[in-house]
């Protein structure tokens, strides 16, 4: 049976044996789907909620190596996992070998982390201007030292990296960074097929994913423009990548993981929920956040999610100001009740931009950074930033 959605007409579900499970070291992912780390989003509450819908590798939001080493209270809180999380995966940010090595040991020994992803793709100004995130691959010798220290600190726990094509069109780093990662024992490489300058604008270059697949021996995971479950199959068929990383498309749509699990198993995905079911999911999400952070902070966090859950529904735009002011669970319940429970999910909302604004940027780098790309020393200014 062909799957028909907003833009992907006639995408076939996976045939038996078409897509193999993805092995990340000793971990087997079936289906080969990973939740992208997202700042202020992929905390324990959101990860647990998504797990209720389908199987995937659910990665925590980015955590700083320096914060872990200095025992920063907020950083340590972000590294916590709930009992339901039997596979503990975390993304790490850092710019010095010592911090990365020691942070990896802390994560493995004290938090029971079973997978560490290294952030080489963050385009956010406060990260790149200190030489972190997508700025790191500009310096191949520095990247080599950082990965060697991280893999050594992680010991037997598998390490992966997530990166972008490069800083901009002048500085494409994904090829050299992929090789360096592979040479240092990294077990898989994720590529967001945009440059840091693009942010989340324009179309992702899936051809770069295909090129990296041909270049490396380790598995390559593709990221970028997977808005619907069918896009994941299309990406894997077009690029040959071993798995997919799903980001913004699941914001306000955690049931996307049920659709992905079905399609990879060769089944017709379940129909999109009506608003009554979506409202119940939003309220369940709020309760999980309250369990983690208490009612005041939990309700602050659910506000942005509530606007994503109501995205493109009739009346959702007018409701947004009210959703961004909710202070109690009862307030949220009352606001959601203004949309009819039998309202069907709007197909036009599948590919609507979520979370990140459009537009491009000039990537901020440390002063003189581009003049010394052949050295192995990063700026001595690693910051305690969280996000991904």
Characterization of the model:
The protein is α/β, with parallel strands linked by helices and 388 residues long. Helices cover 37% and strands 12% of the residues. It has 13 helices and 13 strands. The strands form three sheets. Strands 4-3-13-12-11-8-7-6-5 form a nine-stranded parallel beta sheet. Strands 1-2 form a two-stranded antiparallel ribbon. Strands 9-10 form a two-stranded antiparallel sheet. α1 packs antiparallel against α11 (275-309), α4 (97-111) packs parallel to α6 (140-154) and α11 (275-309) packs across α12. The longest helix has 35 residues, at 275-309. The two termini are 37 Å apart.
Q: Radius of gyration, Cα only, in angstroms?
A: 20 Å
Low-confidence stretches: 1-9
Sheet/helix structural class: alpha/beta
Helix and strand element order: EEEHEEHHEHEHHEEEHEHEHEHHHH
Largest sheet: 9 strands, parallel
Average pLDDT, to the nearest integer?
93
Amount of helix: 25-40%
The CA-CA distance between the termini, in Å, is 37 Å
Strand order, main sheet: write it out. Answer: 4-3-13-12-11-8-7-6-5
- Give the total of beta strands: 13
Number of helices: 13
Overall geometric form: globular
């Amino acid at each position: 049976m062909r799957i028909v959605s907003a833009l992907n007409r006639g995408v076939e579900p996976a045939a038996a044996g078409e897509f193999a499970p993805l092995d990340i070291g000793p971990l087997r992912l079936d289906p080969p789907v990973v939740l992208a780390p997202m700042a202020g989003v992929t905390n324990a509450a959101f990860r647990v909620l998504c797990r209720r819908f389908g199987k995937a590798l659910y990665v925590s939001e980015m955590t700083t190596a320096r914060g872990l080493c200095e025992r920063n209270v907020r950083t340590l809180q972000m590294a916590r996992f709930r009992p339901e999380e039997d596979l503990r995966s975390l993304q790490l940010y850092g710019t010095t070998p010592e911090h990365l090595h020691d942070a990896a040991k802390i994560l493995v020994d004290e938090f029971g982390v079973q997978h560490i992803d290294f952030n080489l793709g963050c385009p956010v100004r406060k990260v790149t201007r200190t030489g972190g995130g997508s700025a790191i691959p500009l310096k191949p010798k520095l990247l080599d030292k950082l990965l060697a220290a991280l893999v050594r600190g992680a010991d037997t726990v598998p390490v992966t990296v997530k990166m972008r094509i490069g800083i901009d069109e002048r500085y494409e780093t994904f090829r050299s960074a992929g090789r360096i990662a592979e040479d240092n024992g990294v077990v898989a490489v994720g590529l967001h097929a945009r440059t840091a300058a693009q942010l989340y604008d324009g179309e992702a270059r899936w051809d770069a994913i295909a090129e990296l697949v041909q270049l490396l021996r380790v598995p390559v995971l593709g990221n970028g423009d997977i808005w619907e479950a069918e896009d994941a199959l299309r990406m894997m068929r077009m690029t040959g990548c071993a798995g997919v990383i799903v980001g913004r498309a699941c914001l306000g749509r955690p049931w996307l993981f049920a659709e992905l699990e079905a399609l990879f198993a060769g089944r017709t995905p379940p129909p999109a929920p009506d608003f009554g079911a979506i409202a119940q999911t939003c309220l369940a999400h709020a309760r999980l956040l309250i369990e983690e952070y208490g009612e005041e902070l939990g309700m602050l966090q659910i506000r942005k999610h509530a606007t994503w859950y109501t995205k493109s529904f009739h009346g959702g735009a007018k409701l947004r100001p009210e959703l961004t002011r909710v202070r109690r669970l009862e307030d949220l319940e009352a606001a959601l009740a203004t949309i009819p429970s039998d309202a069907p999910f709007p197909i036009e909302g599948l590919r609507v931009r979520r979370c990140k604004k459009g537009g491009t940027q000039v990537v901020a780098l440390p002063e003189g950074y581009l003049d010394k790309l052949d050295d192995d020393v990063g700026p001595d200014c690693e910051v305690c930033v969280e996000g991904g």
